[in-house]
Amino acid sequence: MTALPAIQTDFTLRDHNTFGINAIAKRYVTISSLEMLQKVNAASEFSTLPRLVLGGGSNILLTGDFPGLVLHICMAGMAIVGADDGATYVRAAAGEKWHELVLWTLERGLGGLENLSLIPGSVGAAPIQNIGAYGAELKDFFHAATVFDFETATVSTLDKAACAFGYRDSIFKQSLQGRAVILDVTLALPKHWLPNLGYAELRQEVAAQGLDAPTAKAISDAVIAIRTRKLPDPAVIGNAGSFFKNPVVPAGQRDALMERYPQLVSYAQPDGSYKLAAGWMIDQCGWKGRSLGAAGVYEKQALVLVNRGGASGQEVLNLARKIQEDVLARFGVTIEPEPVVV
Ligand code: EPU
Q1: Which of 82, 182, 247, 281 has its Cα between 20 and 30 A from that of 33?
Q2: What is the number of the ligand 1 atom nearest to the C-alpha of 230?
Q3: SS3 category, 57
């Protein structure tokens, strides 16, 4: 029998959230196996405490101390677990870093994940918000996830349909929120790989490399180059990537906005609606590069809020609210936070 893992008390989460917010967890435990998770879940002393499951901490805003138990998911391991005519199946434990998984697959000649290079965070967090960038989303490669359910204390496998993926959304942000822990993720990487260069900025970056037929590794390098140019490194300046989702509006609303703002950046969606570039709207409102206290808007990408040093979660939230008000007043569009606000 595994012993109950060491539980820390009054533990600072500053190094466990990429915003670098100094919030204190009443209790904190590192989980490195399913057995440990089951032990902690069964322990009566924790049954009344609120729970917070933490991966890489790259998509969370802590707005105060956490009066419960933080479970830091650290399970490790990556392996090729099967293949068929269409795909090679790769399984990675929830605690692995997403970008390390991307590099691991590319080193083995498995293409697919290159557009999702350098996204901060853990493998277990990737399905929760269906991470996406440069014309690709996790769901395009997702096969299944193994999940532990706190309420039933059971382990089950969820396939792609069961995860109900949407834009920065999944069942883990909906009915399973606060209830499920992802233990591992299995991805299906295509045997017949084709480059995905639909995103104009990525196409231009690859073209600048002068390659006729770019490899998956070359595309990964291009994505890394773009992200490094435009997005702040959380190790240098605290942030959680895009702070807002790009809002989706009906075609009529987008057309009316285009008449007033011909420069509006929008992307047609398969159902006829339009996704608007929230970063562009925030930029137009004059927020880019500005700060309120120690919370600020990143100079090179207005969608990203940053901790300029010692910001509290409340300061970041306050800045976010001001930005939301301005975007609503000017464009009549509500923009929603992307990270989980705790
Ligand atoms: N724009 C501005 N000013 C800004 C920021 C953007 O004018 O300050 C304009 C850009 O010029 C461009 C458009 O807005 O025409 C879109 O910008 P960008 O290509 O940078 O993408 P995004 O819509 O702002 C989304 C994702 C990013 C992802 C990029 C690339 C969301 C919420 N964000 O950003 O994801 O890397 O596309 O695919 O969907 C993340 O989720 O943390 C993240 C960084």
Answers
A1: 82
A2: 20
A3: coil
242 is catalytic: yes
Please tell me which residue in 27, 168, 227, 254 is annotated as part of the active site: 168
* Tokens coding 180: 């499920």
Is 137 among the residues known to form the active site?
no
67 three-state secondary structure: strand
Q: Which of 165, 218, 169, 160 is nearest to 187 (CA)?
A: 160
- Considering the four listed CATH numbers 3.40.50.1820, 3.30.43.10, 3.40.50.620, 1.10.10.10, the one that applies to the domain covering 8-73 is 3.30.43.10
CATH number for region 238-248+277-341? 3.90.78.10
Q: 156 C-alpha vs ligand 1 centroid, how far in Å?
A: 35
User: Is 273 labeled as catalytic in the residue annotation?
Assistant: no
Q: Per-10-residue mean pLDDT for the chain, 342 residues long?
A: 81 97 97 95 88 95 97 98 98 98 98 98 97 97 97 96 97 94 98 96 93 92 97 96 97 97 95 97 98 97 97 97 98 96 94
Non-local (6+) Cβ contacts of 282 within 8 A are 244, 288, 297, 302, 303, 323, 326, 327, 335
Minimal-distance CA residue to ligand 1 atom 26 = 133
The CATH class, in words, for 78-190 is: alpha beta
Q: How far is the CA of 171 from the centre of ligand 1 (A)?
A: 24
pLDDT at 3: 72
pTM, to two decimals: 0.95
Res 160: pLDDT = 98
